[in-house]
Design goal:
This protein has 8 helices and 4 strands; from the N terminus they run ααααααβαβββα. It has 178 residues and is α+β, with helices and mostly antiparallel strands. The protein has 2 domains: 3-101, Orthogonal Bundle (Peroxidase, domain 1), CATH 1.10.520; 105-177, no CATH class. It has a 4-stranded mixed sheet. The longest helix has 17 residues, at 22-38. It starts with a helix and ends with a helix.
């Protein structure tokens, strides 16, 4: 991540704290990030140098006015004016992480051979709550795991994949041979 993206996210987060809007803005900016990340053409649009800042801001206003707080919309327009709108996904991801840290939520990644349902993801997150930890997991596919999953948090790895089970069995069999 660029230093500038981190600084913009940090400044926006500090403003959210000052205005007591951390939760509301996190939710709204997550929606904005969802839209931008789900429409690949938007990333190209915001990165295009031939499209003027006014045209980019016009699209932002048409898309989000009335749906997100005016300050959030102004922030997106500021990013456009400062020629940072092409980094909006990185900035919003960092903003999301700052909000999670503020609430004591650990972020982690679930690697799975197949896509997990929302219920399965929620069940995995809830399993940490039983242990007194609040986590938010994102999912990434890794077909090399064969089946099962691997969870990577900042301070631990939980590997319940078939790939790791096979590797352990192989090591055990090799030990017995010696």
């Amino acid at each position: 991540m660029s230093q500038a993206a981190h600084r913009y996210a940090e400044a926006f987060f500090e403003l959210a704290q000052e205005m007591n809007q951390v939760d509301a803005w996190k939710q709204q900016m997550d929606q904005v990030a969802g839209v931008i990340n789900s429409v690949p053409e938007l990333k190209s649009f915001f990165g295009a140098v031939k499209i003027t800042n006014e045209e980019k801001k016009e699209l932002l206003i048409k898309s989000f006015e009335g749906r997100i707080d005016e300050t959030c919309l102004n922030f997106l327009c500021l990013l456009t004016d400062k020629k940072r709108i092409n980094e909006v996904s990185l900035i919003l991801k960092e903003f999301h992480s700052l909000c999670n840290a503020y609430h004591g939520i650990e972020e982690g990644v679930v690697y799975a051979a197949r896509s997990l349902s929302e219920d399965q993801m929620k069940e995995l997150e809830d399993s940490f709550k039983v242990r007194g930890r609040n986590v938010e997991l994102t999912q990434k596919l890794d077909e090399s795991l064969i089946s099962g999953f691997k969870i990577v948090l900042e301070d631990e790895v939980i590997d319940a994949s078939m790939k790791s089970k096979l590797a352990r069995m192989k090591n055990e069999l090799l030990k017995e041979r010696m």
